[in-house]
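Lecture 7, part B: from sequences to assemblies.

Below are the input chains for today's worked example.
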Amino acid sequence: MALLGPNASGKTTLLKLIATVLLPDAGTIRVQGHDIRTDMDRARSQVGMAIATERSFFPRLTARENLSFFAALDNVRGPARKQAIELRLAQTGLLDAADTLVMSFSAGMYQRLAIARAVIKNPSVVLLDEPSRSLDPAATEQLWALIRNISAAGAAVLIATHNLEEALALADSIAILRQGKMVEHSELALRHADDLRATYFGLTERRPDEADAFVGTYQ
Amino acid sequence: MSISALVDKALAIFRRDLLTSSRYRGALIFTAIGTLAELAAFYYLARAVGPSFRPEGFDYFSFLLVGTGFYTFLLMGIHSFLQSVQEAQQTGSFEVLMTTETSAPVLLLLTATSACARNLVQLILYVGAGFLIFKPVAPSISISAVLLTFTLSLGIVIAIGFMAAALQVTFQKGSVILWALGSSAWLLTGTLFPISNLPHPLMLAARMIPITHALASMRLALLAGIGLGAVRQEIVTLSVFCAFLLPLGFWAFSYSLHKARQEGTLSNY
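Predicted structure of the full complex, as structure tokens:
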């Protein structure tokens, strides 16, 4: 599923709420049946999140060492940890750079490493915040293939993005957020790309009252 | 969480810190040079003051050596809690760490434990080098009193460290607690001179600071070889501080995290 919306529409906030980094003022979020307020530890154990910042790694450790550290914190232990690290490094195309200090990584390598970290514990829900930000077209294609693989392996993948093309390439369904509210939710199989584009711009570039009227017309 | 899981996480954090430290080799060399220079300064200060000045019955260099070494260990221990949060906020890893299956208090405690282990090595090298190079007097050690004083002092470090981390999460200014401790502690804790030299009101204030009792107890245990019976009063005082401050520090940190999660200020710095 892709979360679309302009800046400050609440996409990243929603991902952080699901990941229990933030707590909601009101409402309920359940991850695999576990309420993030009352059953935070179990909810968190189901979620892997990739935050779009290269600064979230330890720069003087290698990619393999970084993954090993985070895997330990995620209770991936013993021989399973080594296997998980090698598998995720291979899936993200980072095996050749596994013993390189991450301080020398490119933006694309950081993004792939962030995804490897997010899935190291084999979570049932994977949250990706602007996964293809600052990537060139070739790196973007590689990343999209990786995300399709994660989804095909059975995880529910929720992607926050500004990029309509990315949403169309990866998602089965989309939700459009505007000022913290979901103003559109639909299955992409039922939508044409131009239709989605028109809907998105119609909903996100109007004043709230105009957008409400637009949603009414659309529905 | 099982003990084996906790040990596994602790080892991962030790390994991370060890690898990171080993890749900053220049810093290790400069730390060693700085330590030797500090020891030499205290040695010549003690010589300048003269052998007739024997604070609490100890020769002045030994008094300074244990006082400054243990004081630095305690302050650096508290600082390690603050630094763990500050660095994670500044490097952007704080939120990622909060999404792992390790609770924040456990993560902070393990990270600070790793830093304290490193600081303990520095303390042993500092005091050991002081005795070996400058040979003030042969130390007379009571192992049981040293261990008990050390354990209770660690409790104080953990409690104040959690409070500093809570201030950092809430106001992004946990350093104020270190500034307050660092500034007043030189004056009040008997690090450089006995608190009996202070005016009465300041002496009373000094006794309200747990570090004062930690230093006094450690000096007696390390230099006078006095057993548990003789340091009982300091041990009881430290135990009372621990019983009061440890739950308070833990509660303060947990509450600050809960508020920061609600207000979305977790990674503010």
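Note for the exam: Chain A touches chain B at residues 13, 16, 19-23, 25, 41, 44-45, 47-49, 51, 53, 55-58, 60-61, 65, 68-70, 72-75, 77, 101, 117, 121 (CB under 8 Å). Keep this in mind when comparing with the next example.
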